[in-house]
Amino acid sequence: MVSIIACLKKLPELARVAMLGLALCCSGLLSAAEIEIPSAQLLSTDDGYVLSADFSFELSQRLEEAVNKGVVLHFLFEFEMGKRRWYWFDEKLVARQTEVRLYYHALTRQYRLTTGGLHQSFSTLGEALRVLSRVRSWLVIERAAAEKLGLRAGDSYQAAVRMKLDISQLPKPFQVAAFGNRDWNLSSDWKSWQLVLPGGESR
User: Fold this and answer.
1) Residue 37: alpha-carbon gap to chain centroid
2) Residue 159 to residue 93: CA distance in whole angstroms
3) Are 159 and 42 in contact (CB under 8 A)?
4) pLDDT in tens, 26-74
5) For residue 135, how many C-alpha atoms fall within 13 Å in the half-sphere facing its CB?
6) Closest residue by Cα to residue 101 from 67, 121, 72
7) Which has the closest alpha carbon to 160: 100, 114, 96?
8) Which of 8, 23, 25, 179 makes the best surface tag, with the fewest CB within 10 Å?
9) DSSP state for residue 167 in the 8-state scheme
10) What is the DSSP string of 122-158?
11) H or E element, residue 63
């Protein structure tokens, strides 16, 4: 910080203002993640392994306004699982993602969450966000795929999950506004944990 201030003192006034603005912008981009992940776990079922996770976040005023004006927000949930290897790069065994779209349906005056062909409607944005923040029984590894990969109950694996707003799916004018703007960016860091693959079926 001292060296930066010393350099700024040697610059003309206008250049100092520009450099300071750039520094503040960069510090905002490097700030903590806007989405927290309090819990995540992998469970065994008849169909395979399912993920349940909780996410904690709030929409900025700009994002709320965008939703209420009919802009669709695309949220990506990503899951990875692999094995750590001391002698080489970590081995990635599973990489899955799913998308949930949040939007306001003006005709019915309801907020909707859409995943694939499934739809859920809510009378308030708060209700929709509460459901969006809870992922339940997401099938991330099918039983046949687990057998093909050689996954074994009782073995240790490294799992990770994250959530983010996919700004590349926003309309072009909003993508421009979102670039480098914290009001438009919403994401979590990867939440990683060591797990012992569960066996049996959870009823």
Assistant:
1) 9
2) 10
3) yes
4) 434 434 459 999 999 999 999 999 999 999 999 999 999 999 999 999 9
5) 30
6) 72
7) 96
8) 179
9) G
10) ESSHHHHHHHHTEEEEEEEEEHHHHHHHT--TT-EEE
11) helix 61-68
